Amino acid sequence: MKRLGATMLTLALLLSSGAAVADRRPTNGPGAGPAAAAGAVEQRTLPRHGTLLSKTPAGETSRVAGARRAWKVRYTTQDRRGRTVVASGVVLLPRVRRKEAPLVVYGHMTTGAADACAPSRGTPGSTELRRMQQGDLVAQLLLEGGAVVARPDYEGLGTPGVHPYLRGDSLARSMGDLVLAVQRAFREVGDTWVAAGHSEGGVAALNTGSRTGPARGIPGLLGVAAITPVTQVDVLATALGDVPVSGVPINVVVALAALVLKGQAAEDPALRRLLLREGGLSAEALELWPDLERLCLEDLGGPTSWGGLSPAQVQGPRGDEALAEMKAGLREDDVRWLRMRPGMPVRIDAGALDSVAPLPLTLQLVQEYESRGYPVDLAVWPAEHSPTADRAAPELSAWILGLFGESR
């Protein structure tokens, strides 16, 4: 289904854009009892990745209409060095109990890199609440269709460690290990599952569908769905690299670029040294670096944080080198180059008015996949980046449930 619901973005908009489950269900162990005390899990040897460590009632902002129960969970995953670490998320159970319920793992859009930005830690007063809850309508419709919905916070969000923002393998591990943890600990969950997500979550879903990625060994994946997945961020960084002013929408772009640098520096010590010690960042940017572990995206884009800097003001004496390193990392990790599982259905929902994942770049992503024989269903909606999820929700949820042989 290829529907162009509105005209393509103009070039001016583009240039101003942002940027093997053998022991499935243990009857005892850390996933079966009450939550461990805060910090206790980190002080002992962690079980294998994909193990549920605790579940507690989810906070009010993580509850979704149509859910029988909403659990905040902690589970084990791995970092880039293969070390077992703790991650968190939310598991929503449908009102109707059934055997072998479909499982959908759904990744959220960018909220930031600080622990307070984890959706499972959301509060009614959070400035990031809109983005934390942006997937609620999709989740509600999936729950009404009988699916269990698992929503990871991602590595380093809400748990110890740094969030490797937009790093594909990290996102796929967070998704895949939550699937394993839920399948092993919740008896009503079946063996088949779908990966879906919005923006950063769309990148997570596509990486989860890679036949060479860290989730490739988890059986039962029926398809992936990505809403406004960001691609060719290196192109956008080039377009804005020398802009001398700040202001909407550039302020959000600068905040996103800072998050990209933080995510890459988390996995590249040489880049971290270049940025923080060897002149990659300006004095003003260095002063704001701690904000990335303290503030969420809405506040990072404000005038008193990264949003108060123009792109040109971020760079230090060796800023060109840092920018080149950032762009090289983005190109290497771009979802365009993923080798998807043969024959696996892929759906992409795009926003015709999207100023974060511009439509022309999304269309190039679809063309690249199709040129390599990957089946892609594309839907384009007359919406900006965030609202595209709600516009797509009824059709998207029906598509996902259809992969399980379900109908709404």
Sheet with the most strands?
10 strands, mixed
CATH topology of the largest domain: Rossmann fold
Mean pLDDT: 87
Low-confidence stretches: 1-43, 243-248
Offer a few descriptive terms.
single chain, 408 residues, alpha/beta, Rossmann fold, 2 domains, ten-stranded mixed beta sheet, 14 helices, 10 strands, globular, disordered N terminus
Q: What would you say this structure looks like, in words?
A:
- It is a single chain.
- The protein is of the alpha/beta class.
- The chain has 2 domains: 2-231 and 336-403, Alpha/Beta hydrolase fold, catalytic domain (Rossmann fold), CATH 3.40.50.1820; 233-332.
- Helices cover 33% and strands 18% of the residues.
- The protein is built from 14 helices and 10 strands.
- It has helices at residues 11-15, 129-132, 136-144, 168-185, 200-208, 233-240, 250-267, 269-276, 283-288, 297-300, 311-314, 319-332, 359-371, 388-403, and strands at residues 2-4, 52-57, 67-78, 84-94, 101-107, 148-152, 189-198, 221-227, 346-351, 376-381.
- α6 (233-240) packs antiparallel against α12 (319-332).
- The two termini are 19 Å apart.
